[in-house]
Amino acid sequence: MPLVNASGVRNWTPDRLPDLSGKLFVITGGNSGIGLEAAKALAAHDADIVIAARNPDKGDRAVAEIKLCGSGKIALLQLDLADLASIRSAAAQAKERFGAITALVNNAGIMQTPKQKTSDGFEMQFGTNHLGHFLWTALMFDRIDPWHGRVVTVSSIAHKFGRIRFANLMLERGYDPTIAYTQSKLANLVFAIELNRRLEAADSKVASMACHPGYSNTALQSTGPGALLSSVYTLTNAVMAQSAKLGAIPTVLAAAGEEAQPGGYYGPTGLFDARGPVGDAWVERRALNEDVARRLWAVSEELVGQEFVV
Question: Hey, which residues are catalytic here?
């Protein structure tokens, strides 16, 4: 497996962050888990944070917690990535309420859910994890700082087992929760790398980066999978998982680290990439297939009804 735009950074920690006063970070799913811990780490360096969350009560509690970390402005934006109308509404509200975005952090996700559909009829994991963020990024792209802005997409080590199944993209035939999840996380990484290609081709100063949290103990393992998988994760979390705070470090690096490079992919580098020091992460070669990336981009535009021109 190759490295992509390797930065050479090793054992990165958030204490390397510069002062982030006046810089705005918009984080989907920032009300819990990796997103919340990333928000707190950025806020500790006085960043302004917008938590984009589906549940307003959980979002309010997260905002109160993040406010204790620094002197930046903290705000909540209601966003449901499984509903295209909600995404469009949230984007319109964000453009009215907030200024230039330093980093748009595409963090929210669901994992190994039973067969479900989004409000618009998409397979739930692909629709939420990839298509929701694709539309969100397309709509918000013109608000990203054109000189120093970043788009950060959170993928997973599970991308290594994924395939983009164009002939059965919504898994109407033979649904399997793990296949759906690995496909969605591969799509996240394919999107991040393809976005960077397009940004470079357009001579844009905006950077697209990706990251993964390794194997971290978050609500993903308990709120998505069915009973059998959840019981397995209860055991493996206790034995193998690192904390959400450690799992958030790659996201913080990609969002604000001065060492991060456009097109980079960051994550834990020890124990099968599940935990350990944070640095350049390995990418499955399938994620680098440019024909697949172009096709996925075109299909995504068609499905969400939004052209995404860089």
Answer: 181
